[in-house]
């Protein structure tokens, strides 16, 4: 699944299993919701600069990042990705369509106004000094978004005035299996393992979940609710997690499970929590893909636990799962075939007719400053950062990350399926559980 040159200016490659899963999901939601695509990424930074013409600086940095990370300018045709090397006219047309100056009061207002996108798009909101990045999930993941912001801010602070397009295709991101050098066709043993892994997960879904109209009501408006802990409380929680030998991600997810158990739909499977936990796999990749690739290099893996269970037991189980799932190197190859099975399954009538999970998928970005700095020199300071997705026709997303030494939880949902006041109840309960279990 490497990029192939098909003409002097055109390059193509097929999507891999996980990319294909998102392509299918995006297509289903778009066909039913006026072109809106499920899980479109929406990330915001708030900047402080001394620039007299920040708009021009941002526009030039966007062009520079396209050259450095051309994956950002790919489009999709069916189940393949396409990159076109631009001439001057095509480059200007790309800038006009993908660099947008918004009159919105801030990024939150912009979020209620944005239209479906064809490819990665950058928005500048002068009224709030915010910059917003949107992209399809089949093209980028959460860590890829953090890496994008770092590359973009470096381009803003250190502009390259001598960017000449033509050789950027050598930096197009291959599919992860191609980076790892795995064969496209698995051995029968690996195929059986991947299929068994998928079936054990799909056969258990859905597990416990909160009250939701997902699958029973039309899609509404994409919303986001967040909970930001103080520096003092965040530090105390981090210390408590370290002392108990669990990660912050495991602790927050255990608290989330406790919250949805309290507010569970009585018609859901109350005795089991079933999900797919997310793993950033860049540390297993060779350079440059382990540090700079603005792409999609993660995988979901099935996780199940019986309920009811104590916070401590669930947190320890999650921590062990996150820390040990890839201790066996073979799992890296198995996961590629697992996602191919997933991609194939979501296109079948049987899967589409099956009950939908109503709990939120959990995604942890860790400490944002491991990827983006607060200060880029030349007067450029990052004052705030957020990350969420559009929830259109599927599961909600629950993000966990730390920025400026403060633990941040962001819940992306759709108000056609869930009420904002219910989401706030879950966030409040998560906070209370963390206080009680870790700080009490």
The main sheet orders its strands as 6-7-8-3-14-13
Report the end-to-end length measured between terminal Cα atoms. 51 Å
Order of helices and strands: EEHEHEEHEHEEHHHEHHEEHHHEEEEEH
Counting helices, strands and paired strands, the structural category is alpha+beta
Inertia-based shape: globular
Chain-averaged pLDDT? 96
Radius of gyration: 21 Å
Layout of strands and helices, then pairs:
Layout: E1 4-5, E2 10-14, H1 17-32, E3 41-48, H2 54-68, E4 75-77, E5 80-84, H3 88-98, E6 99-101, H4 107-111, E7 121-125, E8 130-135, H5 142-157, H6 176-180, H7 188-202, E9 222-228, H8 231-244, H9 248-262, E10 272-280, E11 298-306, H10 311-324, H11 330-345, H12 349-352, E12 361-367, E13 375-377, E14 380-389, E15 397-403, E16 406-414, H13 420-439
Protein model, in words:
It is a single chain. This protein is of the alpha+beta class. The protein contains 13 helices and 16 strands. The protein has helices at residues 17-32, 54-68, 88-98, 107-111, 142-157, 176-180, 188-202, 231-244, 248-262, 311-324, 330-345, 349-352, 420-439; strands spanning 4-5, 10-14, 41-48, 75-77, 80-84, 99-101, 121-125, 130-135, 222-228, 272-280, 298-306, 361-367, 375-377, 380-389, 397-403, 406-414. The strands form four sheets. It has a six-stranded mixed beta sheet with strand order 6-7-8-3-14-13. The protein has a four-stranded antiparallel beta sheet with strand order 1-2-5-4, with no helix packed on it.
Structure at a glance:
The chain has helices at residues 17-32, 54-68, 88-98, 107-111, 142-157, 176-180, 188-202, 231-244, 248-262, 311-324, 330-345, 349-352, 420-439; strands at 4-5, 10-14, 41-48, 75-77, 80-84, 99-101, 121-125, 130-135, 222-228, 272-280, 298-306, 361-367, 375-377, 380-389, 397-403, 406-414. It has 440 residues and is of the alpha+beta class.
């Amino acid at each position: 699944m490497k990029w192939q040159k098909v003409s002097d200016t055109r390059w193509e490659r097929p999507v891999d299993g996980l990319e294909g899963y998102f392509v299918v999901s995006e297509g289903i939601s778009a066909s039913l919701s006026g072109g809106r695509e499920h899980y479109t990424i929406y990330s915001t930074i708030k900047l402080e600069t001394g620039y007299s013409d920040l708009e021009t600086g941002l526009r030039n940095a966007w062009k520079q990042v396209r050259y450095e990370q051309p994956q950002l300018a790919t489009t999709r045709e069916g189940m393949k990705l396409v990159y076109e090397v631009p001439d001057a006219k095509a480059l200007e047309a790309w800038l006009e369509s993908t660099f947008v100056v918004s009159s919105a009061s801030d990024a939150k207002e912009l979020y209620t106004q944005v239209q479906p996108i064809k490819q990665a798009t950058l928005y500048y909101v002068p009224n709030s000094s915010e910059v917003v990045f949107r992209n399809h999930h089949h093209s980028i993941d959460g860590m890829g978004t953090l890496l994008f912001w770092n590359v973009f801010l470096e381009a803003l602070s250190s502009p390259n005035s001598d960017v000449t397009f033509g050789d950027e295709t050598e930096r197009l991101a291959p599919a992860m299996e191609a980076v790892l050098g795995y064969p496209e066709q698995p051995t029968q043993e690996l195929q059986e393992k991947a299929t068994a892994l998928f079936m054990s997960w799909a056969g258990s879904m859905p597990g416990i979940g909160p009250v939701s109209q997902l699958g029973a009501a039309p899609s509404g408006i994409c919303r986001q609710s967040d909970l930001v802990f103080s520096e003092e409380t965040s530090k105390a929680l981090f210390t408590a997690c370290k002392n108990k030998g669990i990660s912050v991600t495991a602790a927050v997810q255990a608290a989330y499970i406790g919250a949805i158990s309290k507010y569970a739909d009585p018609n859901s499977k109350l005795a089991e929590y079933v999900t797919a936990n997310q793993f950033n796999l860049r540390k297993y990749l060779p350079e440059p893909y382990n540090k700079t690739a603005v792409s999609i290099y993660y995988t979901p893996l099935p996780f199940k636990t019986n309920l009811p269970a104590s916070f401590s037991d669930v947190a320890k189980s999650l921590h062990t799962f996150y820390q040990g799932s890839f201790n066996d190197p073979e799992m890296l190859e198995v996961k590629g075939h697992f996602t191919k099975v997933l991609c194939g399954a979501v296109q079948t009538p049987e899967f589409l007719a099956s009950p939908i999970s109503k709990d939120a998928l959990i995604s942890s970005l860790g400490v944002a400053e491991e990827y983006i700095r607060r200060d880029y020199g030349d007067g450029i300071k990052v004052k705030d950062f957020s990350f969420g997705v559009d929830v259109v026709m599927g599961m909600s997303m629950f993000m966990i990350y730390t920025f400026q030494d403060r633990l941040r939880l962001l819940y992306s949902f759709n108000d056609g399926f869930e009420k904002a006041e219910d989401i706030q109840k879950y966030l409040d309960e998560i906070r209370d559980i963390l206080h009680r279990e870790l700080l009490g």
